[in-house]
Amino acid sequence: MTTTFTPTSSDSPIPTAVPTLLPTPSAQSVQISHPFDLTNWKLTLPIGESKNPKEILQPELANYVIDPWFIPVTGGLRFRAAVNGVTTGGSKYPRSELREMTDNGKNRASWSSKSGKHTMFLDQAITAVPQVKKHVVAGQIHDDDDDVIVIRLDYPVLYVNVDGDNEYVLDSDYTLGKRFSVKFEVSEGQTRVYYNGSAEPVYTLSKEYSGGYFKAGSYTQSNCSKEESASCNESNFGEVVIYNLAVSHQ
């Protein structure tokens, strides 16, 4: 694997950031329109049965809301996953996250980094982190085995993370709620990351992979074993607001 940049680091201390404590509404779904197109996505929620979280597919997803995990806010959609949430069988962490699909949401997306051009644009803000392990993933590319590259906040440092390693610093002192944009562009075995409208990629990963697909939302990187027992509840969560989400394939 080769990259165009070498990792950097931040020596700034990590302050305490505690999510705003909110009353927990009942988990009831309602019908409402969304600010961007969700046709070719499915949603995984941090609720359901152990290792079998609730998933929302099309056509239900088109107008789906469930408070507090997936709701519209001014200009965007809010994704929240509490540390005590249900996880998938392949992860120990909860998520409120979209997974790329095809054919109007009927089939799972699966593309190759060697063929075509695949792009995801995200305009978003990370609005809350867990109280102890202050880590949230907000945007990913997966292949048929594991995550390839992700946008990860190890509060307060915002990174491009590759294969579990924080490879490039996007923001060394990220403020919760600060809006930023990221674009992933994949072609000819290269995965390029653009940040806040940069004309050139800020980071490039040289790696060939197949079974590729995009993910977006809040993938909270903590659980009750990482938090204090008193904070193992729905008031302790990771949260992301997405204002715009667009995917293209050429």
TrEMBL record:
Pfam families assigned to the protein according to its UniProt record, in alphabetical order: Alginate_lyase2
Alginate lyase domain sequence ranges: 36-249
SUPFAM superfamilies, per the entry: Concanavalin A-like lectins/glucanases
Domain of life: Bacteria
UniProt-recorded name of the protein: Alginate lyase 2 domain-containing protein
Lineage, highest ranks first: Bacteria, Candidatus Roizmaniibacteriota
